[in-house]
Amino acid sequence: MLQKAVKLLPVALIVLFSLLAASGAAAQDLAIPALKIGLNGPSSPQQVSVAMQILLLLTVLTLAPAILVLMTSFTRLVVVFHFLRQALGTQQMPPNQVLIGLSLFLTFFIMFPVFQQINRQAVKPYMAEEITQQEAFSRAMHPVRQFMFRETRENDLAMFISMAKLDQPHTVKDIPTYVIIPAFVISELKTAFQIGFLIYIPFLILDMVVASVLLSMGMMMLPPIMISLPFKLILFVLADGWHIMVGSLMKSF
Length: 253
Description:
By secondary structure, this protein is an all-alpha fold. Helix content is 75%, strand content 0%. The chain contains nine helices and no strands. The protein has helices spanning 2-23, 45-70, 74-88, 96-127, 133-151, 154-163, 177-216, 224-238, 241-251. Helix 6 (154-163) crosses helix 7 (177-216). It is elongated and about 75 Å long. The two termini are 42 Å apart.
């Protein structure tokens, strides 16, 4: 009974919002019910358990953005796209909303096999009441841990294992999740910075050529960025830069 109540909580919220949205103008004639919040003591241990589970669910929802950013491919994608914008010198074009949205949908595309595995191994059996909540969480973490471990460098992983004062692990199962996550984030940042350095090289060469030409022509007061920016854009467009960039990032996972 307790598990069913927790499962039906998101469904009840969706139905409630749907009814409110469908009511339209007729909702204005409805009386707003009074809402009372109290701190009455629980009458049974089951009420305390339900309250704790709801509190835990709200905590997980609060940490969902951090989980999405730090435990998926999102970090590498968004950092590389920002390096690309800085290398082009286009200031705020594309805007942050576009870069973050693109990184988000590419993250869904890259992580889709992992999400499918989680849905097949953990979510569906749990909704069918075939496994417990703890077992569902363990099954859901397994594909995510495999993805992070595959993208994590050995040096970063060894550093956090040493700092945590753990015994030498023999398999991936021996490494706790709280050790894999920071090692994965650091590895992703290093990979993103390496890609960003490679992105900067051709545009930096173009800036140096334009600056040298302007200096030889005596136009020292003219900012080189104003002349090199159109050449950067046309070079990036003619080379089909977005296709190459996104394709290379997808192949890097």
